Each structure stands twice: as C-alpha cells, then as structure tokens.
Amino acid sequence: MWFELIFLFLDLICYCLFGPTASLPENKYETVFHTDIFEAFTPLPEYPKNVTRSYTFELLKVYLAPDGFTRPVWSVNGQYPGPIIRANIGDRFNITVINRLGDPSAIHWHGIEQRGINWFDGVPGTTQCPIPNGINFSYVFDLQQSGTHWYHAHILAQLVEGLRGPIIIHDPDDPNKHEYDYEYVMTVADWYHTPTDDPRMLPLLHSANYKGFDPIPDSADISGVGQYNCTIPTCTPSKFATYKVKEGKKYRFRIINMSTMSHFWVSIDKHPLTIIETDGTPVRPATVDALRINIAQRYSVVVHANQPVDSYYIKARIPESSLPVNNYTFNFDSPLLKNDQVTGILRYEGAPDKLPTYNGPSINASDCYDMDASLLKPYPLNPPVPRDENLTTLEFEINVILRDNYLQGVMNNSTYSPNLTYPTNKRIIDGDNFSTSDNVYYYHGLNSPIQIVLNNTENRTHPFHLHGHSFWIIAQGEIGSHLQPLNSLKFNFDDPPFRDIITLKELSLNVIRYYANNPGVWLLHCHMEWHIELGMVVQLVELPEIFSKYVIPNDIHRLCTSI
Question: What distance in Å separates the CA atoms of residue 279 and residue 110, rounded to the nearest whole number?
C-alpha cells in the first residue's frame, strides 16, 4: 500500500512539473536487447497502452577487433556497435547508464527530440554535466517520433572509440509498412586503430602550428565488421558482415552512418534500393542503384530478394573528397586511401557459405553530397512549411581557420568551448550571463517560424545536425566567391526534405526552417567529430521565456556535484 501511494505521489509531481507528456505509462515491459545485428526482426507487438522499456547500458572499455586489428573499444555492454534498442512510438525508455570507462561520459539520443525534457538530450556542457566514472544515471523519456535513430557519446571524442549504437522506434501507422516483410539494421562507419588521446590524434589536432587535415581512419566497417590488410601479429583477418534473406521476400534495411568523418555510398550487387525513410521521416518510395549517406544520417531502403539463390556483395565506399590529406596529416599513408571500399554479403537461404562469384562494377562514389531532394519527398506531407510571415532568421558563416597558430572550427568567427561543470540550460534558468565563446543565440515566440541560413565558406562539405528538431531544407545553392542574397535561391515550399542532418556542399548557401515549439537549449553543429572538437558548434536557446521557468530534476544537478 505504501509503495502504491509513493508511486502515485511521484506521478502527480511529474505531472505538475512537466505536464501530461511525462505521465508514466501504466504497463511495464521486460525488455530484451536485440544484440545480434545480423538477425532479422519484425515490428514489435502493439499493446493497448504505451509501455516502459527498461535497458541497462554498462559503459566498458573492452578489447575488440572489428576489422581484425585488436584495440581497446569504448563500448555499451561490451559490444561494438552497441546493442539495438527498440520500442513503439508512444512508449517510454528508461535507460540506466553505468559508467565504468574510467572517464566521464554521457549519451546523446540522436533523432529523439526530448520535448519538454531538454536535460535528457545527453550533451555535457549544454544539457547536463557528464556522468562521472563509477556513477549510475538514468535517462527517462517518452518517444514522440518514430523511425531509425541512434545513440552515441557526446564528449571526449568517445564516439570515435566506438561508443554508439542503433535506436529503432516502430510506428504501427507507418505509411510504408506494407512495402516489406522483415527488417534489418545496417551500420556503416570509419574506424581508427589509434586511441584519440594518443599524442598523434586529438593532441596533435589541437597543437600549435598544425598544418594537416583531420586524422585519417585506418579502415571501415559494415555493422561492426571490416577487412584490414593484416600484416602484424595483433591482427587476424575478420569475416564479412553477412545478411541472410529468403528468396522472394522484401527486407527493410535501416542504414545508419556512425562515422567520425566519412561519407559513404552504399549498394548491393544486382539489387536496387528503394528509399522509404530518411532521418525518421517516411518518404514516397524512390528506387536508386546506390545510396549516398553522410555522417549521422539514416535511411531505410527496401531490398527485394528476387535474384537467383546465391550470395551478392554489399558495398560501402568512401568518396576520395571525404578524406582530405597532406603529408602533415596523421595517418596520411592509411591503407583506406588506397582501398576505400568495405564489403559485406547478402546471402540467400540455400546459397553455399562462400564468397560471391559475381562482383559487379565498383560504385562511382564521385562526391559527398546528399541524395537528390526529389527522391526524399515526405509521405504523407508534413504540416505546412513555414512561410515568410513573422519569420526569425539566424545566419551563420562556417569555416575552419588558423587563429593564433591553432586550428579552430568557427561559426560567425567564434569557436565553442563547453563549460562541463555548469551546463547552459542551468545557466539560463539561473539567469547567468554568457561570453562570446559560449556561442549562444536566442529566439522567441511559441510556434513562430525559424529560419537558419548556413553559409559554408569552406572548400569542403560539412554534415550539419540540429538537436531538438527536424527541419525542412527549403533552399540550397552556390555562393561562389561572395555571399549571395537569399532571393537568388529557388525555394521549395511544396515538398522539401524533412530531416535532422543537412549536407552543406562546399562554398554553399543553405536555408532550413522549423517552428519554435520545443523550449530548451539545442546544439547546431557539424557532425564530423573532429570539427566538434575544434568548436564548430552553436547553442540555440529556444523560447527562453518559457524554458527559464522549467525545473531541472535533482538527478541532473547531482551529476554536477559529483564531478
């Protein structure tokens, strides 16, 4: 009886503080990790009421060999990539993180908008203090959007070390649910053999007078399995990532690019790919021979197993322009620069357990751009795209520069430096003042339309991610040698892509829009991990007049006192 009264009392407190979206689902569900990424699955059962799905993430350093080369890997429960976590839209995640890394950490839930609970976005210095070593912390949030997403560390370049995994949120009303019979998750990623704290990695990137580019990966992998040219004792040749299919069936492959810095082109010999989702948004089915997928992007594609029973190569290739290099760059002689393709296998049931006999033409991975916008039309169309009335515009000029002999990633000529002991969301509620290096920008007006203009003045592409929102990509164009006025662009208000990652072409002008309806502090940043480390980040304070009245839970405050 006392326990029931306590839970009712806590539920009432949550309702009063955070509103009805935080009310606890009545049903609980004993959740089991989907630990085998090569095991097909179907959507989760529907329940009369939403359920709470509880997971435990134990953050561990373990020795693994994804590409055959053994190295320490920052992992969730000893796995790379981390285990798949799944739920239905409307469910709740209760994820307890146990940090045993020996370093502070935190988990960002990429693609989950965290409406009304900004403090669970998992960004040290912005939404929380990091989780100290030896401390447990629970992220508890309701799932208000569906699709293919992922989780990853957002501190100390731990993403590079392997701390990342898939999130799948099923929607019983998915308009494309009848397009396939089974589902798989597939990840593509670059991979490094050298830990980021090695003097030749992050310390070199941050050193004075560094003249190189971003550190070059050693290899790449599909779903945690790659092939490295093993010529040293600590390396043993690995197998191929292998997905098994039944003749005549259709498979939804949820593809996630979990890379540090690499864009990929993905294809399967003799099997076209039909796109049905991008970054959590269902799209009208569109068929392509190869899929461009930039860092942190997600696509669902349908593969029809309609070829003769056999094995077929899955190919993921990194464009040359994704790996700029000179003689000062760490790992400038990486084998990946000579063999920029990693392969897996699509194997039909009944086919012999051997390598494919057919090897189709190599992918012509000619650029690091997004898929053509005409292939990514939301289905059904989202609410009306924000027009020009009452529009708030923020404009950012983006570059990597050498300032005072140090490389810096800059937005509007300013570099971001996080305050790990006093996060921005708490500073706003406390009424604290901000310095230039905090890179803080405000906008106001509940449900007002927001326009972000991104001017990429660099001669290379950048994948930009906005936390807390998906957005409409309504215009993109070249800027040439001078910034052009927006009216020189062609705007698409009818059916623009709706996603949370946009690829900025080199020397380009890009316009995105969304509605201000999620109070909090949200990062806007390049998703190349090296550029986050260089400070190519701004903090967008959305609706401070509302957010400043929020009450941050005590568990969040306790992290700051535990550091």
Answer: 10
**CA quadruple 7, 9, 10, 14: dihedral positive or negative?**
positive
Tally: H helices and E strands in the chain: 6, 31
Q: Identify any residues that bridge with 478 across adjacent strands, giving them in sequence order.
A: 508
Contacts of 513 (CB under 8 A, 6+ apart): 385, 386, 391, 449, 450, 451, 452, 471, 472, 474
Which one-letter amino acid corresponds to residue 160? V
Rounded distance between C-alpha atoms, residue 299 and residue 295, angstroms: 12
Note the residue count of the chain: 563
The yes or no reply on domain 392-562 and CATH 2.60.40.420 is: yes
Dump the DSSP string for 479-520.
-TTSPPPGGGSPP--SS--EESEEEE-TTEEEEEEEE--S-E
Q: Hunting for tokens 């860092």 — which residue is that?
A: 295
Token pair, residue 55, equals 């997971």
- Residue pair 170/88 in contact (Cβ under 8 Å)? The answer is yes
Of the chain, the percentage scoring pLDDT greater than 90 comes to: 85
- Identical topology for domains 2-34+45-171 and 392-562: yes
- Alpha carbon 477 to its chain's center: 25
For the beta carbon of residue 321, count every other beta carbon within 10 angstroms. 16
pLDDT digits (tens, 9 = 90+) for 212-266: 999 999 999 999 999 998 777 777 877 899 999 999 999 999 999 999 999 999 9
**Bond before 81 cis per omega within 30 degrees:** yes
With 0-12 CB in 10 A as exposed, 13-18 as middle and 19+ as buried, what is 12?
exposed
State the pairing for strand pair 440-443/537-542.
parallel
Tokens 């043993």 belong to residue:
236
Q: What is the pTM of this model?
A: 0.93
Strand locations in 181-309 (E): 182-191, 219-222, 241-245, 250-257, 264-268, 273-278, 281-288, 291-293, 298-304
Give the separation between CA 167 and CA 149, rounded to whole angstroms: 5
Measured CA to CA, the distance from residue 258 to residue 92 in angstroms comes to 24
- Taking every pair of C-alpha atoms in the chain, what is the biggest distance, in angstroms? 72
For the chain, the domains span: 2-34+45-171, 187-375, 392-562
Query: In this structure, are strands 406-411 and 291-293 parallel, antiparallel, or unpaired?
Result: unpaired
Query: Which phi and psi (to 5°) does residue 546 adopt?
Result: -95, -50
560: part of which helix (H) or strand (E)? Answer: helix 554-562
Share of the chain residues as helix, strand and coil, in percent rounded to the nearest 5:
10, 40, 50
pLDDT tens by residue, 423-458: 999 999 999 999 888 999 999 999 999 999 999 999
Question: What average pLDDT does this structure show over 73-100?
Answer: 97
Domain at 2-34+45-171, CATH class? mainly beta
CA–CA–CA angle 165, 466, 102 (5° rounding): 45
- Which CATH code of 3.40.50.10540, 3.40.50.150, 3.20.20.70, 2.60.40.420 fits the domain covering 187-375? 2.60.40.420
Q: What's CA 375's distance to the chain center, in Å?
A: 21
- Tell me the residue type at 279: D
Three-state SS letters, 139-205: EEEECCCCEEEEEEECCCCCCCCCCEEEEEEECCCCCCHHHCCEEEEEEEEEECCCCCCCCCCHHHH
At residue 20, the pLDDT reads 35
